[in-house]
């Protein structure tokens, strides 16, 4: 039986064009940098082939290397563009967290105050991670309260609290994924599933923040957790 094609799902080429437009808007020099990095890689390898008398082999190898380098640079610029677009939006940290690779469960906005400061919850190998959005002087008390509430149902599990923002002692949005992936691996997969089951008992009566949460943030994926 033939698989149905979702007409709303863009093709790979169309997706790349959309991402290229986003990069161009965030950084007009972005796409020329991608092109020059690929061409420069090809040129260096071809020159090496000329010197060593392996021209045709170097051309083949150079094309592969140029495509690889171009895609890597393209992905890095796409991720930076994503962060620049999300920065300052309500729920930006949640959008970035949901783009992480690996066995992560992200629950956005488990706590919201009247100033629209947010706390998101992430469950993974490190344990439970609470990530706040908002000024440090406002979210510190929220984080302490949520940490105490979560600790009641995940006894013995490590709980981390991270303030996402540009203030002193906070983790910038663009470094949030990497910061979380550097946390120690305290839990194995069966224990992670057990923690998820325990957390389902927490009440979910928190009002959502006003305005839409950022969407489409999974475009560039973060590095895999080592």
From TrEMBL:
State the residue spans of region: Disordered. 187-226
Q: Which organism is it from?
A: Nonomuraea muscovyensis
Give a yes or no for keyword Transmembrane helix in this entry: yes
According to UniProt, the name of this protein is: DUF4191 domain-containing protein
For this UniProt record, the keywords arranged alphabetically read as follows: Membrane, Transmembrane, Transmembrane helix
- Bilayer-spanning residue ranges: 30-48, 54-74
Sorted alphabetically, which InterPro entries does this protein's record hold? Answer: DUF4191
